[in-house]
C-alpha cells in the first residue's frame, strides 16, 4: 500500500475515532444533566444509565478505530442496544399528528395557490400594460410611416414636376433657332 493511501486511511480512522469520542463526550454530558434532573424527572436516572453505557460503547469504538480496526459485532451491538431509542407513539396520536400535517399541507397548498394566482394576475397586468404601450408605440410608428410615405409621394410628385419642367425648358430651347 502506498504511503499516500496509508496516510488517507490513517486520517479516516482518526476521523472515525474523533467522531466516536465526540459522541461519547455528548453522551457523558447528557448523563450528567439527567443525573441532575433525577429528583424532578421520573425517568432521568434510566436515561443517565443508558447515556453512560452509550458513552462507554462509543469510547470502545474510538479505541478500536485508533487501532485501525473495524468495529467488531459486540461493539456494534452495544452501541445499537444503548443508543437513544425512538419515542413510542400512540397510534391514535400518530393519526391525529398525521391529520394535522395533512391539514397544514392543504392550508399551505391553498396559500401557495393564492400567491401564485396573485403573481399571475400581477404579471398579466404588467403584460397588459406593456402590450398596451407596445400597441401605442406601433400605432405611432404606423402614423409616422404614413406621414413619411405621404411626404415621399409629395417629393416624388415634385421631382416629377421639376423633371417635366426641365424637359419642357430643354425642349423649348432645342426648338428655338440658335443665334450664332
Describe the secondary-structure layout.
Layout (H helix, E strand, L loop, with lengths): L2 H35 L6 H23 L6 H10 L8 H85 L5
Helix pairs in contact: 1-2, 2-3
Written overview of the protein:
The chain is mostly helical. The chain folds into 2 domains: 11-82, no CATH class; 92-180. 85% of the residues lie in helices and 0% in strands. The chain is elongated and about 135 Å long. It starts with a helix and ends in a 5-residue tail after the last helix. The model has no long low-confidence stretch (mean pLDDT 87).
Keywords:
mainly alpha, elongated
Integer average pLDDT: 87
> What is the helix/strand order?
HHHH
Q: Which value, in Å, is the CA radius of gyration?
A: 46 Å
Number of helices: 4
Q: Please state roughly what percent of the residues sit in beta strands, choosing from under 5%, 5-15%, 15-25%, 25-35%, 35-45% or over 45%.
A: under 5%
Largest sheet: none
* Global geometry: elongated
Helix content: over 70%
What is the end-to-end distance? 120 Å
Overall tally of domains: 2
Secondary structure tally: strands: 0
Would you tell me the structural class of the helices and strands? mainly alpha
Can you tell me the residue ranges where pLDDT is under 50 for at least 5 consecutive residues? none
In short:
Residues 105-180 are annotated as: Disordered. This protein has 180 residues and is mostly helical.
